[in-house]
Amino acid sequence: MRKTLVFTFLVMALASQASDPTEAKSQFARDFLPVWQTSTDIAIQVAEAMPEELYNYKPNDSSMTFREQVIHMAFTTLYLSKVFVANENPEYKEPDMSASSKEEVVEYLKGNIEKATALISEMTEEASQEEVKVFSGKMMKRYIAVMFVQDHLANHRAKANLYIRINNIKPPEYGFF
User: Which terminus of the chain faces fewer neighbouring Cβ atoms within 10 Å, N or C?
Assistant: First the structure.
């Protein structure tokens, strides 16, 4: 228990430093992090708003469950940040968290957001201007690819938010940075 508390405190301390726009290594990150922080805070609020008993809800057979939406947000936020920001080539394999509690899924989301935020914050000015290949094979500046990461997160956050509304639950307020 004590090790877990120390680890949690350490991760939170590092994440708070990484999300401080004034500590970011590029102008892009300094400008982008307030937008990112608002977007990711709302994503966490959406994940927390759905009661645990509705985490397996989905509006139709072809949709992801709410749980799957949150796990997808968590996984892809870090995965895409590793690909576009850190030039990594990780395996695309979302974890099976079908038996995980709501609390575990929300913590997974928070942890991956913290790691992605740290990657964005550490991106240098030179790196932000480099060209990277995106999924279509098209080349674009790295900072534009990072904006796609936020757009992808917002897309799935909106879907999850709709699941909340369908279940007559008041969703989190939208925020402006």
Answer: N
